[in-house]
Amino acid sequence: MKRTTFFQLICTALLLTGLSSCGWRREDIGPFQGDQQTFELANFDRLDMGSAFTITVQPGSAFRILAEGDRRNLDDLDVYTRNGTLYARYRNSRNRQYETSFTITMPTLRGVSFSGASQSSIAGFTNLNELDIELSGASKGQFAVQAKQTNLTLSGASNLQLSGLGAALGADLSGASTLQAFAYPVNDANLDLSGASKANISVSSSLDIDASGASNVRYRGAPSVKQRLSGSSSVQTD
Question: Which end of the chain is more exposed for a tag (fewer CB within 10 A), N or C?
Answer without folding.
Answer: N
